[in-house]
From TrEMBL, chain A:
<dbReference type="Pfam" id="PF07521">
    <property type="entry name" value="RMMBL"/>
</dbReference>
<feature type="domain" description="Beta-Casp">
    <location>
        <begin position="245"/>
        <end position="363"/>
    </location>
</feature>
<dbReference type="InterPro" id="IPR050698">
    <property type="entry name" value="MBL"/>
</dbReference>
<keyword id="KW-0539">Nucleus</keyword>
<dbReference type="GO" id="GO:0034472">
    <property type="term" value="P:snRNA 3'-end processing"/>
</dbReference>
<dbReference type="GO" id="GO:0006368">
    <property type="term" value="P:transcription elongation by RNA polymerase II"/>
</dbReference>
<dbReference type="InterPro" id="IPR001279">
    <property type="entry name" value="Metallo-B-lactamas"/>
</dbReference>
<dbReference type="InterPro" id="IPR041897">
    <property type="entry name" value="INTS11-like_MBL-fold"/>
</dbReference>
<dbReference type="GO" id="GO:0005654">
    <property type="term" value="C:nucleoplasm"/>
</dbReference>
From TrEMBL, chain B:
<dbReference type="InterPro" id="IPR011989">
    <property type="entry name" value="ARM-like"/>
</dbReference>
<dbReference type="Pfam" id="PF02985">
    <property type="entry name" value="HEAT"/>
</dbReference>
<keyword id="KW-0963">Cytoplasm</keyword>
<dbReference type="InterPro" id="IPR016024">
    <property type="entry name" value="ARM-type_fold"/>
</dbReference>
<dbReference type="GO" id="GO:0008283">
    <property type="term" value="P:cell population proliferation"/>
</dbReference>
<protein>
    <submittedName>
        <fullName>BRCA1-associated ATM activator 1 isoform X3</fullName>
    </submittedName>
</protein>
<dbReference type="GO" id="GO:0005737">
    <property type="term" value="C:cytoplasm"/>
</dbReference>
<dbReference type="InterPro" id="IPR000357">
    <property type="entry name" value="HEAT"/>
</dbReference>
<dbReference type="GO" id="GO:0006974">
    <property type="term" value="P:DNA damage response"/>
</dbReference>
Length: 599, 834
């Protein structure tokens, strides 16, 4: 029985490291290869031993697909390919391929710098891993091998994020990765065609939330930044190198221009150029507005945002600084935070999630006295704000996507169990499809009924058309032919063509039947009576009385003979070919009713 | 336990037991368990529970709570396991009937919570930790846990099922380690009841007609023979081996993959010494399994240190079969005996190769990989059929590229299957590279070079295939024989090189960055190893490769720019970058130094700048001609550029370069005061020490310090000492400690401790330490430097830096505080992510 099997190694009932194994018609695909930022030991990576147990990785897996550049979706990739030993192809979009190494490199540096980890992937490993990547374009069908094909769709969320359709024969799975159904400042909304997959694997971060308009959050953000700057304070916005930072930069840039503000805005050195470079390079991946205005003005060429130098942190007066890393756990952002934390006029805005153990997590949970190295205590007097700018589809958006794709089954990942449970019921009720939410390590098996494509010969179709009936999708009709299975292909052809192609001689098969009639006349007369009767009944058919006394109707032959024992009874021998089975049966039943009395 | 943690613990336990207070971060509970594991490993669990009654209370409250999350329940089961691992604590918990309530029928096992895999997993992990002593064994038997574990082997969660199998092995080992230690009787009656039960279950499973059950039993046994060292394992094998052998009678053999794992695990254990029948079973298995299934077993057998020759021959034959079939199918005419010494190919292998594309690709890739893994091992079969294997690898590659047209039917079909198949190409190129370690007949090597060239030239080759082709080519070139009597390449290799370089030239212009980069990596390695060989130099200088490499310093892709930096650096080291400096073109070589300095100052990406620093360090270390001209100026310029770099790895590399410079100036680490040694004699030719006599007479520390001051090394190192990135500060600390150690025994040339210069330096350093690094130090007097060096507590700083910078945040207090602080603030951000 053909089936689709899905096993999350990560993102099963959690929002951690996404890594989902899909087996479809004998092909094995790994969807995302993420890491968990909250761990600094082996637990940060998915447990790949469950795959290596099945033999060599490269033999087992046909490909790896990465949905976007966030570390919880791609952070384990160099480890998987260069340390665990996967040597096969890795598919991702071009922007993801370009940006992925930057974030991996950033993370590698943090692991080495902050945690002093020696057994971590190196820069060379990141490069070697990226060389295994095959870039895919949106809506381009990529043939992984003769049977397996993939296709990317726009997912919003971050630059280059994509949903992927994985298809083997007639069976298909769609994996959404992270997506956003509403456009934002720099990206468009996710879109997929009505591809009716056997299974849709969708993220469910906001499974129970209907998010308010992003405009409100943006207004709130600008208000807070503006107020702080107006009162002479400094604003620190810890960000990761690429992604949300650019969205916020566009926001501030536009606002600064509109309000004619003079306070400087800085961005970690080198990152503005880098971000600019990638956004310019991948302008088709941004939203419609940016694409349209790109020729007159590139939204990513900021007038007000300048590169940051360490010395600026001590400058007097208000300023806004975007600094990495995003969770205040090391490097420049932490250094600036330590400088500014003591002044209540200043503000830190955390635009994203922080894992436990980071300074970001501590201040977000309200801690105001932080123990730093050397038993120093840092008193946080500056204002601390959390503003979620993560771009995930909310419950409404998820339902919208399910409606768009029309899957046969839905499987939820990347969310919390309780919320998934709620969404699962909603999907099952509204769309009448089965919805699954496996935990990590649990396998969902879906039986499928693969449709086998059959080619119909032109001759057969022409013959059908000649009958004058035009094809109509709403009125399926039967088409008779011979099914030929040759070279793993199925074709429906006319029987004549089948015989010719297969080099076979035709065998005639005739059905025969005896009908007893009470008739005292001679056999020849009975035959004439049969002829007359049939001639009168079967006006549309060719009824003939042959010289040898037999009667034919199309291929049906009727002969009258005397009964060996009863001279008052005649035996009609009826025979017909399988092509005239219908007519033959009809005639037999007609003759069994007897002949009309001669007038 | 830390008093602060003891103080926070009751509040945390109350929060954990309260279903209305969800725990935000799923890593917190894991970290909490890690902490308890550390605490109990260091002291008495019983004492811990007695001093912190809130812990037992937490376990009781968890049991009573109706709507507690599965995560907390799982956590509690694991926590109880950690405590109960110590026997006295186990008894303590037993007195309160806590353990049966947690792990017995009345606990979560019988409730709705059991449907959550996290709870089942917690239950297993709790028992796994708990099962450390005889009391635990009795408890397991009494509460019927073993039966539950049996059923969990078939759990819907891979993690739970696997953990259940591991737990069974652990219990079996524990039971057999006890009173039955040393026994190896296969008679069940001798074994403890618990072990008997498990072994009977394994026996039943092995006899089952359901493959999953057979698989579970085989997996458990694999772990037993892989991890348990007791003599009893030999008895176990004697008892179970007939059942295992019986699996081979079935067609198809069930759970073949697990069977192979088990047999190899047994073969690696102490069993073979007592049971020679194992070899027979292995031989039978090899002949019963399909070629694809038998491959891993054959490789495993050949890796064994000690096994019968006949079995090794059989195993090697299996690995060779697919390639033998390929050779046979592609042969134009009957040739010399192939891989199998003229023996007929296995029809089953041929069938597998031809039945479908995926089967053919899978089998060939496995065979190529297995043989490649075997090649470098000392226990590889001998004689090793190097020439036929080379022929096979070349043939496979040619079938894949479509450059051979076999006349036979089978060959034609193989060709149709393999043509353009990247997976086989990659595997075959890896294998071909591995074969470079052995010698081959001249004809074979010519074929190897020819097929490699074909692949490197082919427009059909993907970037990964090209990378592998470059790697294989490098291996062959580096292992090629040298001309007798001199260290130059032999004529055939030189001829190949002359053909190769135009291809490399073309590849360096590829639109695909991966290809350009692989080409540059190849060039760097070749130059590093063959830069001094006349043949290579001649061929390279006659080509446009050096010029193209230099042009790639402007490549749009930063990875390629970085590789170009490394390659040009290497070429320049061997004077291969341009025509040797002549009176007409004096600046030809010098320009690269300027160009690389420009990259260091201006490149927006970190990779090229890091590469420049590595090249410069190497140049300084090896006494590159351009550096030797004026090392002082060189170091000053490089350090100035590196100090401003936003990338900490560039700054750290700057310190590496500074350390090399110091070593050349003051003698290497570990040697004594430089005052005692004549500098020029210890330094390599062309380095600073050679140049010093012109600048200042060597032999005095003061002169060396003057040089260091002039290149502003101290400003660079002091600034780095307070760098926000820890590795930079650590490296700087090491450097300054080295300097101080070198200088201290000699005493200070000028006592400058109280001079105004010292006070100003110290004041600036304090500001730097506070994060205000705007102000420069200005010119420093050597005396002031030494005084400052003595006044800084470098050892203390080194110890602080040795701890990872998040050690405070990683502390248990921090964890408890974070968990408590997070209560009630789980608003909007609870389900947020990146």
């Amino acid at each position: 029985m053909p089936e689709i099997r899905v096993t999350p190694l990560g993102a099963g009932q959690d929002v951690g490291r996404s890594c989902i194994l899909v087996s479809i018609a004998g092909k094995n695909v790994m969807l995302d290869c993420g890491m968990h930022m909250g761990f600094s030991d082996d637990r940060r990576f998915p447990d790949f031993s469950y795959i290596t147990r099945s033999g060599r990785l490269t033999d087992f897996l046909d490909c790896v697909i990465i949905s976007h550049f966030h570390l919880d979706h791609c952070g384990a990739l160099p480890y998987f390919s260069e340390m665990v030993g996967y040597d096969g192809p890795i598919y991702m979009t071009q922007p993801t391929q370009a940006i992925c190494p930057i974030l991996l490199e950033d993370y590698r540096k943090i692991a080495v710098d902050k945690k002093g980890e020696a057994n971590f992937f190196t820069s060379q490993m990141i490069k070697d891993c990226m060389k295994k990547v095959v870039a895919v374009h949106l809506h381009q069908t990529v043939q992984v091998d003769d049977e397996l094909e993939i296709k990317a769709y726009y997912a919003g969320h971050v630059l280059g994020a994509a949903m992927f359709q994985i298809k083997v024969g007639s069976e298909s799975v769609v994996y959404t990765g992270d997506y956003n159904m509403t456009p934002d400042r720099h990206l468009g909304a996710a879109w997929i065609d009505k591809c009716r997959p056997n299974l849709l694997i969708t993220e469910s971060t906001y499974a129970t939330t209907i998010r308010d308009s992003k405009r409100c959050r943006e207004r709130d953000f600008l208000k807070k930044v503006h107020e702080t700057v107006e009162r002479g304070g400094k604003v620190l916005i810890p960000v990761f190198a690429l992604g949300r930072a650019q969205e916020l930069c566009i926001l501030l840039e536009t606002f600064w221009e509109r309000m004619d503000l003079k306070a400087p805005i800085y961005f970690s050195t080198g990152l503005t150029e880098k971000a600019n470079h990638y956004y310019k390079l991948f302008i088709p991946w941004t939203n419609q507005k940016i694409r349209k205005t790109f020729v007159q003005r590139n939204m990513f060429e900021f007038k007000h945002i300048k590169a940051f130098d360490r010395a600026f942190a001590d400058s007097p007066g208000p300023m806004v600084v975007f600094a990495t890393p995003g969770m205040l756990h090391a490097g420049q952002s932490l250094q600036i935070f330590r400088k500014w934390a003591g002044n209540e006029k200043n503000m830190v805005i955390m635009p994203g999630y922080c894992v436990q153990g980071t300074v970001g997590h501590k201040i977000l949970s309200g801690q105001r006295k932080l123990e730093m190295e050397g038993r120093q205590v840092l008193e946080v007097k500056m204002q601390v704000e959390y503003m979620s700018f993560s771009a995930h589809a909310d419950a409404k958006g998820i339902m919208q996507l399910v409606g768009q794709a029309e899957p046969e089954n839905v499987l939820l990942v990347h969310g919390e169990a309780k919320k998934m449970e709620f969404l699962k019921q909603k999907i099952e009720q509204e769309f009448r499809v089965s919805c699954y939410m496996p935990a990590n390590g649990e396998t969902v098996t879906l039986p499928t009924s693969p449709s086998i494509p059959v080619g119909v010969s032109l001759g057969l179709l022409k013959r059908e058309m000649a009958q004058g009936l035009l094809p109509d999708a709403k009125k399926p009709r039967l088409l008779h032919g011979t099914l030929i299975m040759k070279d793993s292909n199925f074709r429906l052809v006319s029987s004549e063509q089948a015989l010719k192609e297969l080099g076979l001689a035709e065998h005639q098969l005739r059905f025969t039947c005896r009908v007893h009639l009470h008739d005292t006349r001679k056999e020849q007369e009975t035959a004439v009576r049969v002829y007359s009767h049939l001639k009168s009944v079967l006006k549309d058919h060719c009824v003939q009385h042959l010289p040898d006394g037999s009667v034919t109707v199309e291929s049906i032959l009727i002969q009258a003979a005397a009964h060996s024992e009863d001279p008052g009874t005649k035996v009609l021998l009826v025979s017909w070919t399988y092509q005239d089975e219908e007519l033959g049966s009809y005639l037999t039943s007609l003759l069994k009713k007897g002949l009309p009395q001669a007038s | 336990m830390d008093p602060e943690c003891s103080r926070l613990l009751p509040a945390l336990c109350a929060v954990l037991a309260d279903p209305r207070q969800p725990v935000a971060d799923d890593t917190c509970l894991e970290k909490l368990l890690d902490w308890f594991t550390t605490v109990t490993a260091a002291g008495s669990s019983l004492l811990l529970l007695q001093e912190n009654p809130c812990l037992v209370e937490l376990l009781f409250r968890v049991l009573k709570s109706q709507d507690l999350s599965s995560r907390i329940l799982s956590f509690s089961l694991r926590l109880a396991g950690i405590f109960a691992a110590q026997e006295d604590c186990f008894q303590y918990l037993q007195q309160g009937e806590l353990l049966p309530m947690l792990f017995g029928e009345v606990g979560p096992l019988g409730g709705a919570a059991w449907t959550a895999p996290a709870v089942r997993s917690g239950w297993i992990q709790g028992l796994r930790t708990l099962a450390q002593h005889p009391s635990a064994l009795r408890f397991l038997a009494a509460c019927g846990a073993v039966d539950t574990i049996f059923s969990l082997q078939g759990d819907s969660s891979l993690f739970v099922a696997s953990a259940a199998g591991q737990l069974l092995v652990h219990i079996l080992d524990l039971a057999m380690r006890g009173p039955a230690r040393g026994r190896c009787s296969p008679q069940a009656c001798d074994w403890p009841a618990c072990a008997q039960k498990i072994v009977c279950h394994i026996e039943d499973s092995l006899c089952s007609i359901a493959t999953p059950q057979v698989t579970q039993a085989l997996n458990v046994l694999t772990t037993v023979f892989g991890h348990c060292r007791g003599l009893w394992t030999q008895g176990l094998w004697v008892r179970l081996s007939p059942l295992v052998a019986r699996l081979l009678e079935k067609d198809p053999v069930p759970a073949s993959h697990s069977l192979v794992d088990l047999l190899l695990s047994v073969a690696r254990s102490s069993v073979p010494s007592s049971d020679r029948g194992l070899w027979e079973t292995l031989a039978q298995t090899l002949s019963h399994l399909s070629p694809t299934q038998a491959g891993p077993l054959a490789l495993g057998i050949l890796k064994l240190q000690d096994c019968p020759q006949a079995l090794r021959t059989q195993a090697f034959g299996i690995l060779l079969q697919p390639l033998a079939c390929v050779l046979e199918a592609a042969a134009q005419a009957p040739g010399p005996p192939g891989l199998l010494g003229g023996a007929a190919g296995d029809p089953m292998t041929a069938d597998t190769l031809l039945c479908s594309k995926s089967a053919c690709v899978g089998l060939l890739c496995c065979a190529l990989t297995h043989l490649g893994l075997l090649q470098p091992l000392p226990q590889r079969p001998s004689p090793w059929p190097q020439a036929p294997l080379l022929g096979a690898a070349v043939t496979v590659l040619r079938l894949c590229s479509g450059s051979v047209a076999p006349t036979s039917d089978v060959g034609g079909r193989l060709c149709a299957i393999l043509v353009g198949c990247g997976r086989v190409q990659r595997a075959a190129l890896d294998f071909l590279g591995a074969l470079s370690q052995g010698a081959g007949p001249q004809e074979s090597v010519t074929q190897v070079f020819s097929v490699l060239l074909e692949y490197l030239m082919s427009p059909e080759s993907s970037s990964m295939v090209l990378k592998k082709a470059f790697q294989a080519t490098l291996r062959w070139l580096l292992s090629s024989p040298k001309t007798p009597g001199c260290c130059d390449l032999d004529p055939r290799t030189q001829l190949f090189l002359r053909e190769l370089l135009p291809v490399l030239q073309k590849r360096l212009c590829s639109p695909c960055w991966e290809v350009r980069d692989s080409g540059l990596e190849f060039l760097t390695q070749m130059t590093r190893h063959c830069g001094g060989q006349a043949g290579f130099r001649q061929a390279l200088l006659a080509s446009e490769v050096p010029e193209l490499t230099k042009q790639l310093l402007q490549d749009p892709e930063s990875y390629v720019r970085a590789s170009a930096v490394t390659a040009t650096g290497q070429l320049s080291s061997w004077a291969l970058l341009a025509a040797p400096a002549s009176p007409e073109r004096p600046g030809a070589q010098q320009s690269l130094l300027v160009e690389l300095l420009h990259v260091l100052c201006a490149d927006s990406e970190g990779f090229p700048r890091r590469a420049v620093m590595q090249v410069f360090t190497e140049w300084l270390r090896d006494g590159h001609a351009d550096v030797a001209e004026d090392p002082e100026r060189f170091v000053a310029r490089v350090l100035q550029a590196a100090s401003r770099d936003p990338d900490w790895e560039v700054r750290a590399q700057g310190l590496e370069l500074a350390l090399v410079f110091l070593g050349q100036l003051l003698g290497p680490r570990g040697s004594h005061c430089p005052c005692a040694v004549a500098l020029p004699e210890t330094a390599p030719p062309g380095t600073l020490a050679q140049a010093l006599p012109e600048a200042a007479p060597p032999g005095t520390l003061a002169q060396a310090l003057q040089v260091l001051c002039r290149v502003q090394l101290f400003e660079f190192a002091f600034r780095a000492l307070f760098d926000c990135d820890r590795p930079v500060a650590q490296k700087s600390c090491d450097l300054l400690l080295f300097l101080r150690a070198k200088a201290a025994p000699c005493g200070s040339p000028q006592e400058a401790g109280d001079s105004p210069n010292v006070a100003s330096v110290e004041a600036t350093l304090q500001r730097w330490q506070a994060g205000e690094q705007g102000q420069p130090l200005g010119y420093l007097e050597p005396g002031a430097v030494m005084a400052v060096l003595r006044s800084i507590d470098l050892e203390g700083l080194r110890d602080t830096l040795a701890e990872s910078s998040d050690h405070v945040e990683k502390s248990p207090q921090s964890l408890l505080q974070d968990m408590l602080a997070a209560v009630g603030v789980l608003g909007e951000n609870e389900a947020d992510c990146y």
